[in-house]
Design goal:
Blueprint lengths: L3 E6 L6 H15 L8 E7 L12 H18 L8 E8 L9 E3 H9 L5 E4 L4 H4 L6 E3 L16 H5 L9 E6 L6 H12 L9 E7 L16 H16 L24 E9 L8 E8 L14 E5 L4 H12 L6 E5 L14 H19 L1
Parallel strand pairs: 1-2, 1-5, 2-3, 3-4, 5-6, 7-8, 7-11, 8-10, 11-12
Antiparallel strand pairs: 9-10
Helix pairs in contact: 2-6, 6-7
């Protein structure tokens, strides 16, 4: 039996109240005694103005799409923390799809093979999933005439982008421990920057190694590097639409030693992410790194780096080091913090999750004494 539900948003609500109502109903339905589902996919169709045709600039639409993904994850907060939510980006134009943007037809195919127990939809979905679709359930949402265009609040950042080519090799780094919505936003937007017409697309994900974890709070509760790799790979496969049954420990994931005078990358695992749209597979490299630079100074072909508001200063340090090496600078994109009011004080945090585990362990230790 399928263990996931799907909330299908055929068009993006322009009212935040309408969007929140749909997400709230989707999360509550998934956690009800009727279904008891722990996983909810939210498939959102991007506005045509952001991705019209295959030649659209992913760079210039980055901040608006980032706002959409951020808001979707933020609105799931506080409803039910036990529900694991993944945001899937869709487009109705097949030519605009590829990489992390999937086509509507992929949802129909996946539903036919039992991907979801229920499909929750706001607008008529009969022509997509078929009139005889037995697991499609309409949500009762009161539509509003408000046109907030809430995703356009980063136009200032978009306008400051210099003219340059699209990015075919993008990079992000982090601990990626207890994969939460902030991590998912970073990973999604790193994949988003790869355009659908990329000839040799690659994602380079730096995942913190043991040496760089020494100063982390509650580091004893950080999961192993292999476990964090597996969670990262699983998430990326889910949002790209790679539904193959390949094992994480297959030959394509063999560890490779990297020779470098810098103690920055000690292990690499390579995979391919295949999109159902039929474009070029994305090469995924998971790098273990031990300092603040990671693969940004061992993989010259990287052309962009995605950071959070909290770590944006790191982009400058990386570019300083790349200039020393005689390499081109990276274009640095910043995503907002997920959770609360968007500030560092209220953001989602792996550190907070580890703190709770440590606190729980102390309580249980008290019972055992």
């Amino acid at each position: 039996m399928a263990t996931r539900n799907l909330l299908f948003l055929r068009t993006l609500p322009t009212s935040l109240a309408e969007l929140q109502a749909a997400i709230t109903q989707g999360v509550l339905f998934s956690s009800s005694s009727i279904t008891s589902i722990k996983y909810l996919d939210i498939a959102v169709t991007l506005p045509a103005a952001l991705t019209t045709g295959a030649t659209v600039s992913r760079r210039h639409s980055f901040y608006q799409v980032s706002n959409i993904v951020n808001r979707l994850y933020t609105l799931t907060e506080g409803i039910n923390e036990e529900i694991d939510v993944n945001v899937i980006l869709l487009h109705e134009d097949y030519n605009a799809c590829g990489g992390v943007i999937r086509h509507w037809s992929d949802l129909r195919r996946l539903n036919e093979v039992g991907q979801w127990l229920n499909i929750l939809w706001v607008e008529d979905a009969d022509d997509l999933f078929g009139p005889n679709c037995k697991n499609a359930i309409p949500l009762q949402i009161e539509h509003e005439s408000v046109d907030e265009r809430w995703w356009e609040n980063h136009t200032d950042a978009m306008e400051t982008l210099a003219e340059r080519e699209e990015h075919y090799v993008s990079c992000v780094g982090g601990t990626f421990d207890y994969l939460h919505a902030g991590h998912k936003l970073l990973l999604t937007m790193t994949a988003y920057l790869i355009p659908s017409d990329a000839t040799s697309p690659k994602l380079v994900i730096g995942i913190t190694g043991a040496e760089h974890l020494k100063k982390k709070k509650h580091k004893e509760y950080v999961t192993s590097w292999e476990t964090r790799c597996e969670a990262t790979l699983s998430f990326l496969r889910g949002i790209v639409g790679d539904n193959r049954t390949a094992s994480f420990h297959s030959n394509e994931g063999a560890e490779l030693e990297v020779e470098s005078e810098l103690p920055t990358s000690t292990r690499i695992k390579r995979f391919e992410l295949s999109s159902p749209v039929g474009k070029k597979p994305i090469v995924l490299e998971l790098h273990e790194f031990q300092d603040i630079f990671g693969p940004t100074i061992t993989v010259e072909e990287i052309s962009c780096l995605i950071v959070s508001e909290e770590t944006r200063s790191g982009g400058g340090l990386v570019n300083d080091k790349r200039r020393e090496l005689g390499w081109s600078e990276l274009e640095v994109f910043t995503v907002g913090l997920v959770g609360g009011d968007g500030s560092v004080a209220t953001k989602l945090s792996s550190t907070e999750m580890r703190r709770r585990k440590a606190e729980k362990a102390d309580v249980l230790k008290g019972f055992g004494s």
